[in-house]
Amino acid sequence: MKKERAKYGAAAFEGKAKRVPNLFPRIMGENCLRYLEEVVASGLTVDMVGRFEKAFARELGVKHCIATPGCTPALATLAAAFDFEPGDEIIVSPVTDYGTIQGLVRENYIPVFADTEPGTVNLNAGTIEPCIGDRTRAILVVHKTGIICDMDPINDLAREHDLIVYEDACQAVFGEYKGRYAGTLSKAAGFSFDAEKTMGSDVGGCVVTEDDELAERIRFIGQSRGAEMEPHFGRKHVEPGYAYRMPHCTAAICLAQLEDIRDHVRKIDRMARLLSDLIEEIPGVRPLPLPDYMNVYSCWMFGMSIEPGDFACTPEEFADQLSRAGIPGAGQGKYYLMPSACTFLDRNARENVYPYSIPPAGREYRYTDEMYPNAKSFLERFIRWSTFCERYEPEHCQMAADIIRTVADENRKS
């Protein structure tokens, strides 16, 4: 039986009714064709990847940018580059995408999910602390939807326990926390430039860091396949590695997108805050809470919660009506709850599949929804659409709010 596969990019939005702007076709950047032609005309000799890496590092204000073919490979190279052992624990948010934890799983680390802060999409220092144990080595924070985690308390907690902090900033490109960019708030970070993301190329991603040794390690393990050159022999693979290198044509598109991204993010921030204010006025509907410390909201995915007790329909039915009324891609994101989406985790833990065997695992593990009540409750009421973009104008925000109000009024309990 042929299974329905997940769709990505423009294919995921084909046939969707829309009255408000859609991401696709993407705005490609004034110099996109020129950079692509340069790659072709050079016969693949131009170092477009290097140019993009230097430009992105300069714009973000970091020493190193290592370009990858996607966001999942970016985080996977980071997982491989850290000097952890099988069975070591990495604390991570339960509300994220499989790409966040794929590298942890493949390196035989054990993901330990910290529940989210009540009423929000992210974890914080208070939910992380009870998860810290003898085998904890790092905290991987996820700036879900573009809302940046409260990083100062998380970094303080990590210093107390001698832990590494790194960021999944795939949905928060050029978002700002207390005047600092997401991705510069810890030891390292992964970014996404996939087609549907805020700075969307065809695919793509990168890792950024200030750490010289870590950057070299990422290039060695993540791009050179763990190979050293030996005289009179050639490549000798001294460690298992990967060939996660960004293609030059992808780098050309990313470089063109980078030239406009700051203006796009500033506009997205304004429109997301305007739409949040408009939705706040609709009884029974709440936009995602925007923390005061977040100066710029690089909103990749706009989201809101509904109070099920106020309506005669389920949140899923509410979202379906929004989609049919013209908000493309409106729907729930229950699959973001990793213990539910990644069923192999609990199966492997129960069956003591390596690394859950003892040793190397330090204890028994379970991955069930009930272990993360805040995250589960939040996602049961959460509705999002991932087509929020720089094309939004105030009239589109008003139109979206009107659609939401109409659906809410039509389903409101009398």
Task: Write up this protein.
The protein is an alpha/beta fold. The chain has 13 helices and 15 strands. The protein is globular, with a radius of gyration of 22 Å. The relative contact order is 0.17. The mean pLDDT is 95.
SSE inventory with pairings:
Blueprint: H1 32-41, H2 48-60, E1 64-68, H3 71-81, E2 89-92, H4 98-106, E3 110-113, H5 125-128, E4 136-142, H6 151-160, E5 164-168, E6 176-177, E7 180-181, E8 188-192, E9 205-209, H7 212-222, E10 227-230, E11 234-237, H8 248-280, E12 285-287, E13 294-296, E14 302-306, H9 315-325, H10 338-341, H11 343-350, H12 373-381, E15 382-385, H13 394-411
Parallel strand pairs: 2-3, 2-4, 4-5, 5-8
Antiparallel strand pairs: 1-9, 6-7, 6-13, 8-9, 10-11, 12-14, 14-15
- CATH homology superfamily name of the domain at 32-255 and 352-362: Type I PLP-dependent aspartate aminotransferase-like (Major domain)
CATH architecture of the domain at 32-255 and 352-362: 3-Layer(aba) Sandwich
Number of helices: 13
From the helix content, strand content and strand pairing, which structural class follows?
Answer: alpha/beta
Unreliable stretches (pLDDT < 50, length at least 5) are none
Helix-strand string = HHEHEHEHEHEEEEEHEEHEEEHHHHEH
Shape: globular
Strand order of the largest sheet: 1-9-8-5-4-2-3
Mean pLDDT: 95
Radius of gyration: 22 Å
- The helix content is 25-40%
Output the CATH topology of the domain at 32-255 and 352-362: Aspartate Aminotransferase, domain 2
